[in-house]
Write a structure and sequence with these properties.
45% helix, 87 residues, mainly alpha, 4 helices
Amino acid sequence: MARIIDGNQMNMIGDQVKKYRKARKMSQQALSNKLELLGVYICRGSVSRIEDKSRTVTDIELFALAVVLGITVNDLYDTTGFEHFLE
């Protein structure tokens, strides 16, 4: 069975995190700072690695990213190509 994520990509949400962060005119450091206020410690470098998909994301981090960005967890997923799962 084929894997959804290949060996080079450690998460599926990096592009969306970057998109929503930039739409809010938020720097990676600002995102890191807001996450820290929630008790979720992701340094600026780790935000960069999440966005370039070279770092995994825990469920707690996923939830906190959505809260800070003012979106739902589902918004963090690009479902292009997976429409048949959503029917």
